[in-house]
DNA sequence: AGTACCACCTGACGGC
DNA sequence: TGCCGTCAGGTGGTAC
């Protein structure tokens, strides 16, 4: 599930627990998510420090003190875990990479489903280029947003989820944004008035920032959020009296309120 | 260009 | 209890 808000929360965890700490040892325990060799990863980490992090969409990049960057993608089930217990083997489940700091702390990359990525890249720009990512959803203005979507003929949900257009939105947060903007997921972009696109942009910014503020924890979401009600038959969080329904858009399961989110016609 | 579907992978959950 | 099918959902590839 890690999308932009989740990865931003992960970034803050890593900033708080790992920056400027000497990496004494890097242990790779699962090579299936590596985009580089095991030895390249270890060689670039051991004896070095992370000095800064940068998030682009769902990717997290950590600058190392030699200038190259650690690239991390969390896939659907990835997350970082930091702990300070002296015993490095008391680690969480599904660890793929564990960093042991010289002062005794640890940071692990965990990922149950092994759909993710770890690698070493020259720069964030190179990584963005190689993965064909559009601009990050937080680093574009309302004019950029309108221009990026202008001339596209797809459905609004599919387009927002397309990382080549805008980087950061996945299934869950796209649904939330469309619910709050009261747009049907299958609305064709070309049907949207420019003013509606501006509203959609504002909603996207608001929802993503709020999500980070409540640490992406569904239990802490505001009352009017769809997030804790992502299943068929749940009462509409806008209180319209309708029920949450499931819809398939481009092969992805989406949730929405058929009463609040009508297709324009 | 856009849609649809599959594969990757594994844990959770519902049905019987 | 326990097996089994289905779902989850990010990315990437293919077919149309």
What does this structure look like?
It is a single chain. With 265 residues, this protein is an alpha+beta fold. It is built from seven helices and ten strands. The chain has helices at 4-18, 38-45, 124-130, 142-149, 156-161, 171-181, 194-213; strands spanning 23-28, 50-56, 59-64, 69-73, 78-83, 95-101, 106-111, 117-121, 245-249, 252-256. The strands form three sheets. The protein has a four-stranded antiparallel β-sheet with strand order 1-6-7-5, with helices on one face. β3 and β4 (69-73) form a beta hairpin. α4 crosses α7 (194-213) and α6 packs across α7. The longest helix is centred in the C-terminal third of the chain and has 20 residues, at 194-213. The mean pLDDT is 92.
Strand order of the largest sheet: 1-6-7-5
pLDDT < 50 runs, ≥5 residues: none
Structural class: alpha+beta
Order of helices and strands: HEHEEEEEEEHHHHHEE
Number of strands: 10
Query: Radius of gyration from the CA trace?
Result: 20 Å
Give the overall shape, derived from the CA principal axes: elongated
- Put simply, the count of helices is 7
Strand residue percentage:
15-25%
On the 0 to 100 scale, the average pLDDT is 92
Helix content: 25-40%
Terminal CA distance: 33 Å
Largest sheet: 4 strands, antiparallel
